[in-house]
Specification:
This protein has 445 residues and is an alpha/beta fold. Helix content is 48%, strand content 16%. Bound molecules: NADPH dihydro-nicotinamide-adenine-dinucleotide phosphate and (2Z)-2-iminopentanedioic acid.
């Protein structure tokens, strides 16, 4: 990254300690030299300097009361990164690890991901260092109400449209939407996505990220003359993305042999029993160890992180950032992995990405492979704007078309820039060019 090295040094200086943000920026910048060499007008217009500085960053206090009357204070964030292609769009994450650097890495990735979908959505992200684990429904509701009491001033269907991410699913979106409606006296469906289907939500939004990730994997395999049918798949995580990645992989004829949570992972050689997993995770909000207990002889629980020791043809990291290390990548390659697709955001460390690329494993970065979630959010916005609601089959077909489109544009862009088969190069350049061209057209903003 010779052209962008001085810019990167300045980004490190101005955003001290924000390690995940540095990592996300570096992963994009190190692929951009060929574009900047061909297009000096992008350098003159200081597109990269502008893109790396969010348009607006909001940090606010979120006070709330637990069930025993004790008061807690959390920190809320919304980083509005780029609205050049549409209203800011991106999820909210509730997890104790959340800080400004994490929200900025996610918001930065979201700009390019959203561009790749081809939908009119800008990039943003938010959340809180609130830990939902072990909290009652009433506590979650009070927290969401307090969070929205500040956030409502900053969002709107034409301004900024949040959705879910880690720790934020249908339940939280419900409480957030209820409080927004109450404060503003507006049933403004398009202000949040991931809503329940009876009050403005889209069919297939719950499934979209996991389904999309598997569809992308299938496209990568297809371009190599293979398919998912009969393959063994390893998935990490057991949340929204992981569960629906498992479901789609099974529908396409694969056997999914693992999933995990932050306590450890399960191995189920016969294939994950999805009804059991959903009952434990979606209904009872339980722990993954319980899966092995209830599944009996078929499955075993392994405490601690891992997953990637299990032999597989395709690996889908669907939990969190930097969960798949260089050592894990070497193990996967040794065990013959053919494709890796990031259901989570930046789950693969840069060193691990290099291992996959050197071994010619098909590797899909999150901004391409997990874009089905936000793309279906944009379909939800489209339905809200026209007060319409589509069937599951129609929405899923739109999702499949979008994932094929993303795959093809990453594939052809990588070829155009002399890096055939490199989906990291393809995704970064295709997303960047769309955003950069819009910025040039809209003047110095
Ligand atoms: P959920 O909260 O539904 O599930 C998260 C899963 O990851 C849980 O199994 C959780 O285990 C595990 N996990 C989270 N943090 C850690 C950690 N620090 N260490 C180990 N395991 C962890 O979130 P989602 O499924 O929605 O999100 C998963 C990933 O997908 C995230 O990277 C998110 O940014 C990304 N993503 C989500 C989209 C969406 O539409 N929801 C869209 C695109 C990307 P535990 O319960 O033990 O914490
Ligand atoms: O990382 C992501 O793309 C998401 N969490 C989904 C964002 C959205 O607005 O649907």
């Amino acid at each position: 990254m010779t052209l962008v090295e001085p810019l990167y040094a300045e980004i490190l200086r101005r955003n001290r300690g924000e390690h995940e943000f540095h990592q996300a920026v570096r992963e994009v910048l190190e692929t951009l030299d060929p574009v900047l060499e061909r297009r000096p007008e992008l350098v003159d217009a200081r597109i990269i300097e502008r893109l790396c500085e969010p348009e607006r960053q909001l940090i606010f206090r979120v006070p709330w009361m637990d069930d025993s009357g004790d008061i807690h204070v959390n920190r809320g964030f919304r980083v509005e990164f780029s609205s050049v292609l549409g209203p800011y769009k991106g999820g909210l994450r509730f997890h104790p690890s959340v800080n400004l650097g994490i929200v900025k890495f996610l918001g930065f990735e979201q700009i390019f991901k959203n561009a790749l979908t081809g939908m009119p959505i800008g990039g943003g992200k938010g959340g809180s260092d609130f830990d939902p684990k072990g909290r009652s429904d009433a506590e979650i509701m009070r927290f969401c109400q307090s969070f929205m009491t500040e956030l409502h001033r900053h969002i709107g269907e034409y301004t900024d449209v949040p959705a879910g991410d880690i720790g934020v699913g249908g339940r939280e979106i419900g409480y957030l939407f209820g409080q927004y409606r109450r404060i503003t006296n507006r049933h403004e469906s398009g202000v949040l996505t991931g809503k329940g289907v009876t009050w403005g939500g889209s069919q297939a939004r719950t499934e979209a990220t996991g389904y999309g990730c598997v569809l992308f994997t299938a496209e990568m395999l297809r371009s190599r003359g293979e398919s998912l049918d009969g393959q063994t798949v390893a998935v990490s995580g057991s949340g929204n993305v992981a569960i629906y990645a498992i479901e789609k992989a099974q529908q396409l004829g694969a056997t999914v042999v693992t999933c995990s949570d932050s306590d450890g992972y399960v191995v189920d050689e016969k294939g994950i029993d999805l009804d059991l997993l959903k009952e434990i995770k979606e209904v009872r909000r339980g722990r993954i160890a319980e899966y092995a207990e209830r599944r009996g002889a078929h499955a075993r629980f392994v405490p601690g992180t891992g997953v990637w020791d299990v032999r597989c043809d395709a690996a889908l990291p669907c939990a969190t950032q930097n969960e798949l290390t260089e050592e894990d990548a070497r193990t996967l390659v040794r065990n013959g992995v053919k494709a890796v697709a990031e259901g989570a955001n930046m789950p693969t460390t840069p060193e691990a990405v290099r291992v996959f690329q050197e071994a010619a494993v098909a590797f899909a970065p999150g901004k391409a492979a997990n874009a089905g979630g936000v793309a279906t959010s944009a379909l939800e916005m489209q339905q809200n704007a026209s007060r319409d609601s589509w069937t599951f089959a129609y929405t899923e077909e739109r999702l499949a078309q979008i994932m094929r489109h993303i795959h093809d544009s990453c594939y052809t862009t990588a070829e155009r820039y002399g890096a055939p088969g490199n989906y990291v190069v393809g995704a970064n350049i295709a997303g960047f060019e769309m955003v950069a061209d819009a910025m040039l057209a809209q003047g110095l903003i």
